[in-house]
Amino acid sequence: MGDVIREETKRRGLEPTAKNTGEVMKLLRQQKGESAVAELCLETIARAGAQRVVVDGIRSMAEVEAFRNRARLLLVAVDASPERRFELLKDRGRSDDPLTHDMFVERDRRELDVGIGKAIALADETISNQHGTPGKLAADILKIVERWDADERA
Amino acid sequence: MGDVIREETKRRGLEPTAKNTGEVMKLLRQQKGESAVAELCLETIARAGAQRVVVDGIRSMAEVEAFRNRARLLLVAVDASPERRFELLKDRGRSDDPLTHDMFVERDRRELDVGIGKAIALADETISNQHGTPGKLAADILKIVERWDADERA
Hints:
The structure is a homodimer.
Chain A: H1 2-11, H2 18-32, H3 36-48, H4 61-68, E1 76-79, H5 82-92, H6 101-114, H7 116-121, E2 125-128, H8 134-153
Parallel strand pairs in A: 1-2
Helix pairs in contact in A: 1-2, 3-4
């Protein structure tokens, strides 16, 4: 979902910094409603013609509902403590990742205001990313998807 | 934390049903602020004179802050899907547990409004209770507490 916001930010002639993508996310929501970013993703997915899709970066129940209206959805929350998430974001260093702890706290506040906490609380599955490695996380997710597959077939 | 609310409900001469405890929780917050239930728990804990305490039932960051002001705190989120939580509550059958799915959805809405999603999103540790048994959950929690102990000593 971040890709879609970064694309939209560039389309508007802005650098995809944390500040600009944050502003564009807010503007999109004001102009097209709370599920605006999900709707943009759904267009991209439709163009790709894919049958199974992993969407990363859901921030609110409005977005969850937008996806649920179009597909069977398994909502997975991947959570870690604020400290750990700040470390992971620093290591990642993407153009719109927060550079300072203040920017990180501000980003968290913005995402909590949008309603990310409700989406986490109401997830179908929860995975802790507090102590794991990328390999452990991938294994956890694969297990969940395989279980979901088996349930859907049953 | 539910014990404290059930006690307070009885103290006010009411049966501790889901409806009454919900009302008392709301009244307590209106009268004594968002951390009212945490403050009542802190009184109980002080009377018990315990050095190490497990508190179950945190619903908001205001409550988290109340505990953090008085002790070192490890905030652990135990999450499961709404369907699974409804099943677990039906099996538990406590006086103030929801009897119907509508009551359950209403309870979830009330707790999300108080801010439980933020507390889950900002937890230090997250455990999934989606597929486990009580024994698995106990083992997960023990592991987390032992790791915390080791970190505190380091």
